[in-house]
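--- STAGE predict ---
source: upstream dedup step, 1 unique chain passed
mode: sequence only
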Amino acid sequence: MSLTLEQALGEAEARSPAVIAAQARVEAAKARVRQAGVRSNPELSIQVENFGGTGQISGIRSAETTVAINQSLDFGGRRQTRKTAARADLAAEELRLAIARADLAQAVREQFAKAVTAAEKFRISTENDALAREIARITSILVKEGREAPLRAIRARSAAAQAAAELEAARAEEQASRNTFASLFGATVPPKDLQGGLLDLRPHAVNPEQSLDVRLADAQRLRAEAEVAQESSVARLNPAVGLGVRHMQDTGNVGLVAGVSMALPLFDRNRGNIAAAKADLRAAEANFASVAASARVRARNAITNVEAAGARVAALEKSAVPEAAEALRLAQLSYAEGRATLLELFDAQNAYRDVQSALVEARLAQALATAELGRASAQ
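--- STAGE serialize ---
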């Protein structure tokens, strides 16, 4: 099975436990917003008086039965503060979902780049192994012809053995990298190969003040403000009115009754919870300032790293790799014709391998820096 970066991003988001959990928390927050807007239930009260006593009120002949409905008026703004706090919670959870998606996308881009890099290293090791074996074969022929000392053949065979060992290490690294990449989207079988380029993001303007992390810190600050308002509303008077019907057993008459009730804040004015909410608000404000500063630094560093990595890749692709490849080609021809020594051929081979590896690492650094820039600029 082949896989592109775009396909991997879609698969990962569809299967990621972190994203699924964040989506569930958003649904829960939406339900709490709906619940916060619901008015408190009215209370039904039934009261029977003047029965089971002595004299005229013995038995139930003088009983008076009152049935009433009582409703809280919410003059203290409890319902509104609940709704504000619930909406603030929802905004924060939606941002956490966006962050989970952005973090996952960064992880997929990074691991995709690492897996492609491992495959490229495996390719280079395969070529290097084949070249080392060919050099060992040619050296053996030259030794038999008396054109090289036997020590040169030993050196060539040793280099070939080292190249074979490096090939096996690269093979294992490539397999492990694909396994790690597959784990990001819950696949049990890793993709056979990865296709496409390492970069799927284009440079664009970065506004760290609007990054996801800063927006989440601001949402948390607004949630703390809502908590202060909510705790303050608890200390306010919250009267309830009641209206009912009273039936007098002895006369059969029926009359209306009305009343008002409220809790008197004599002992508990919720001062402790209000003080705690204000302290949480100060902490949220400090956290917002810290996150905003970190976001600015993160964005600047990401931009610098992308530019530096891009310049390094361009330099290697334009001159270093082509020149090293040409030098190796000439060294191979010269050695076959007896005009270059084995050491010179080894030097050319190692130089070409090193510059190829440098280009692979530079492309990986560019991909990682671009993924980091994408995360830093996510909004």
